[in-house]
């Protein structure tokens, strides 16, 4: 059956990197029997400029109808002065919420060819393979009340609320336990239960779930320590589960263990296996339009789409192997370059992956 894939390139480097990901999908369709139909929709600042809304109804409807979404990135200085609810970022949050994409899987894997590019020494980081499971449709990014105002004393004030209920925690907890069960059987739940009530509930629910997964070892860690441990000894982690805010921050930190944020893919999944696939990075306005963006994060996100939604693990393996071959050949975008390697543009890196897949 034909799978419908909606491409939402967005802003900044989004369109440049998505172009390379689409070339990868096209070659898989032409040469490897991948049965897909591609469509494209506006999102983020690009949608604000045309429709006045970062997530127009037509884009949301197209995303609902698609079997999977490939998302670039949104945001940039052109829209930074808009009020929060009208900004590109709000469009992405709404899309995640409307599609029920509560589980964001962010694998941080170090390709051995990039050991030199990691922020850490090779002996500390070689063989790194962590899965960060981030709750994506709750917590402080969605909590009510939220707002901004003035107090009677004339002070400016603003507030957001970190809120989770038991069902939301249990749902992401089950996902994380299942993932840990299929990996190294170790799950570290990251919270701030020494300070936050919401983290205490999070911890209680994780502990209750642990009774159903006696083949998985559950540990807990405070988020400040987790940030430090990620940099000190990252290989102690196998699967990590955490809230929306903490997962957002920790996964950017984990990216630098793999050499660059341009290497980290992600899958945002609903309860039925439908997914939105996107790089962990943002729209990188500082390098947009210059051919400097690393397209591997979005290409590896295509691999996750093949594995999790399109049921083509065989092709996911091929894409990941093609990334390895391109790195073996010494191809590097600027973010992962060293003295021994030559700079490749976004398009050259994408082209190399396409050539490998032919
Ligand atoms: N999922 C999304 O669409 C996200 C959007 N954003 C938005 O993106 C805009 C920029 O945010 P920043 O905080 O600067 O984060 P960013 O992730 O866009 O960029 C941070 C740094 O990483 C570099 N970088 C990012 N992606 C890269 C790639 N593929 N190859 C090479 N280098 C790369 C950038 O050049 C920059 O120096 C903001 O408007 C922000 O709200 C931020 C994070 C996620
Ligand atoms: C820009 C935000 C909506 C989110 C973000 O930084 C992320 O999901 O990594
Ligand atoms: Mg982020």
Strand order of the largest sheet: 2-1-3-12-11-4-5-10-8-9
**Major β-sheet annotation:** 10 strands, mixed
| CATH homology superfamily of the largest domain | Isopropylmalate Dehydrogenase
Just give the CATH class of the largest domain: Alpha Beta
Structural class: alpha/beta
Output the number of helix runs: 12
* SSE pattern, N- to C-terminal: EHEHHEHEHEEEHEHEHEHEEHHEEH
Computed CA radius of gyration, to the nearest angstrom = 20 Å
Which ranges are low-confidence, i.e. pLDDT below 50, for 5 or more consecutive residues? none
* Cα distance spanning the termini: 23 Å
How would you sum up the global shape?
A: globular
Say what the CATH topology of the largest domain is. Answer: Isopropylmalate Dehydrogenase
Work out the strand percent.
15-25%
Q: In percent, how helical is the residue content?
A: 40-55%
What CATH architecture label of the largest domain applies? Answer: 3-Layer(aba) Sandwich
User: How many strand units?
Assistant: 14
How many domains, in number, for the residues?
2
Query: Which whole number gives the mean pLDDT?
Result: 97
Question: Please, could you describe this protein's structure?
Answer:
The chain is of the alpha/beta class. It folds into 2 domains: 1-109 and 259-358, Isopropylmalate Dehydrogenase (3-Layer(aba) Sandwich); 119-258, Isopropylmalate Dehydrogenase (3-Layer(aba) Sandwich). 40% of the residues lie in helices and 19% in strands. The chain is built from 12 helices and 14 strands. The chain has helices spanning 14-32, 45-51, 57-65, 88-98, 122-125, 166-182, 197-210, 223-232, 244-255, 296-308, 313-328, 346-357; strands spanning 3-10, 36-40, 68-73, 103-109, 129-135, 147-150, 156-159, 186-191, 217-222, 239-242, 267-269, 275-277, 331-332, 342-343. Helix 8 (223-232) packs parallel to helix 9 (244-255). The protein binds 1,4-dihydronicotinamide adenine dinucleotide (NAI), 2-OXO-4-methylpentanoic acid and magnesium ion. Magnesium ion binds at residues 248, 252.
